[in-house]
Specification:
Layout (H helix, E strand, L loop, with lengths): L13 H18 L2 H21 L12 H14 L3 H12 L2 H6 L7 H28 L7 H29 L2 H16 L12 H8 L2 H13 L10 H4 L1 H25 L4
Helix pairs in contact: 1-6, 2-3, 2-6, 3-6, 3-7, 3-10, 4-7, 4-8, 6-7, 7-10, 7-12, 10-12
Length: 271
């Protein structure tokens, strides 16, 4: 009698296969949460409208540029760097034992965090496109053509993917949804201490140095450059003088640090 053997999935491809399944699970959950989707999509729209119309005519940009064109790329990066949802979600799953159940399954340890990060990046892409449409309505324009604009979009998605790993790692460390929500107050200033809303040239020297070397500042400057929008003084800081390269290096560094940390923490049994 002839038996038919089933070929197992190669070990090298399992993280990707398991990660794709985990991403599908996250996206499936989102489809059944219309209120959450509405709130998530409303946030970038409100950012553009509030800052575009309320502050748009009140803040001067170096070189007499349009503040809305200066601001909108920074708002893109603010959304991309929003690691709070990933932090709270992972803290909730860890506190409720969901992580323990996934850890007991015969899947790659990196699969679930990878799936969460991939789903967040895909969902974030939709938010960025919606924000871009709102930006066009308030006066933001792309001055360099479709190619550089797509490059800026790809850079934003990659940066969001890296930031999500930071959020997941913090959530795994905290393991408490309420504590994660309270910690978000301390996370927000990291994004604010940058060139997103105003140029850093007017800051005190020590604070300006921190802001200029903030990854958020580099990515913001890169998006402004790629879209042909008004830029801020570089203050002699290397990341702002070479923003695209600096953004790629920051993204790679964040992934190199937090992917192993998050994966190791995820695989670690609860104390």
């Amino acid at each position: 009698m002839t038996t038919t053997a089933t070929n197992p999935v190669p070990a090298r491809s399992r993280p990707l296969v398991d990660g794709a399944a985990a991403a599908s699970r996250v996206l499936a959950k989102l489809r059944h949460d219309p209120a959450g989707i509405a709130l998530t999509l409303a946030a970038p729209v409100m950012l553009v409208l509030v800052f575009g119309y309320i502050f748009g005519s009140a803040i001067a940009v170096p070189g007499s540029g349009d503040y809305r064109e200066f601001l909108v790329p920074g708002l893109f990066v603010t959304i991309a760097f929003n690691l709070i949802p990933a932090m709270i979600t992972m803290a909730r799953d860890s506190g409720r034992g969901v992580v323990d159940r996934f850890r007991s399954m015969p899947i790659s340890r990196v699969a679930v965090p990878f799936g969460q990060a991939a789903a967040t990046a895909l969902y974030g892409l939709g938010c960025l496109l919606l924000m871009a449409a709102c930006g066009l309505l308030v006066g933001w324009r792309i001055r360099t053509g479709i190619g550089p604009a797509l490059g800026a979009l790809g850079l934003l998605v990659a940066f969001q993917f890296a930031a999500t790993w930071i959020g997941m790692f913090l959530g795994l460390v905290i393991r408490n949804e309420e504590a994660a929500g309270q910690l978000s107050v301390l996370v927000l200033p990291v994004g604010m201490l940058s060139n997103v809303f105003v140029p850093t040239a007017g800051m005190p020297a020590w604070l300006r140095t921190i802001a200029d070397w903030n990854p958020v500042s580099a990515v913001t400057a890169a998006v402004r450059e790629l879209c042909g929008n008004p830029t801020a003084p570089t203050n002699g800081a290397w990341p702002l003088e070479h923003p695209v390269l600096a953004s790629l290096l920051w993204t790679a560094l964040l992934l190199a640090v937090f992917v192993p940390l998050c994966t190791a923490r995820y695989a670690r049994p609860r104390d």
